[in-house]
From TrEMBL:
Residues 91-110 are annotated as: Disordered. Gene3D superfamilies: q2cbj1_9rhob like domain. Residues 99-109 have a biased composition (Low complexity). Pfam families: PhyH (PF05721). This is Phytanoyl-CoA dioxygenase.
Amino acid sequence: MMLQRCRRDVVLLSTTKAAIDIDEAKATIANQLEYPYAVVPNKSIDRNRSSSSSSHVHEDEQTSEEWVLVAAKNLERYGVCALIGSEEYNNNDTRRTTQDNNNGNNQNNSRESIIHHSICNRTNQAASSRLSDLQQKIINRGDDPSGETGGPFRFVEVICRDEGGRRFDMPVPWIGSVEIGMPLSKEQTNAMTEFHECLDSIVRPVLNALWTKASNNEATSSLSIAAAGFLMNQPGSKSQSWHRDGPDEGYIDVFVPLVDLTEELGPTQLLPGTHDMKDVDSLNGIHEDELPSVTPLLQRGEILLFDYRTLHKGLGNTSDNKSRTLAYSVYTNQSPVDIHNFPDALTLEFD
């Protein structure tokens, strides 16, 4: 049963298939400080355990649960939806964005966690140790593991995605998939499997609802994972340009911060509704201030879902010494291959 404070889950950002009502959408965001979201009730999942143990979605709260339908509707309409915890944020039930943070209202830990903090912490440690292992392999090759001097690099196991060597993309295998490249350690595998199982139990009902509706209530084909991994945004990174992750329909990005996000850590900024704009891969020819953006400052373990085609960018990390680790996965009901972001590359396995 949804709590009454979820009555505004469907955020009134006016969009159509052809274009965005820019003035109305800008006014909505400016006045209400909201972004498309759905509140996951406390009882929907045992957040202290992964779904591989006794954790499960309750029988009376499966895909017909209201929060699932709200999330699917937001994804369909705006191409963006955050899944957030169910504790009250404040008396007005607004959601924290960068404007709140600029005003000094940093209210992390004000909501119930979705993926338990202990799971996030173990996964964060596993990701950090994995990056260290890979960077040592790069050193063994005689190369710069930061990418700062030699420029961006690409291996099967890790990709440096900026000129300054401060932004790393580290693909990892999903549950049950075949490992390619340098194997994970046992500890890394255990932590990431626990995390992926917990994440999948929350995300899969939403995407089943989204794609069942899109196919006129016909049964959807099995969901699969096109990619999974971690994005490491280190101090000194620069903001990215607006971009889409790909042009194809039927792919959903899933981002989970493993630390509480603040503006200085470089959260993800998105342009709701741009998934339905045709032939737009960037903001070329479009003034940035003409489109309303949202920058959800999620807590550790909350989940950001957005359409592969939604224009977005990672902001720069302006903190002095704190990295932002974000887990990602790409769900699809199409071919489970992401060639746009992961072309062929060398492996570090034998270095």
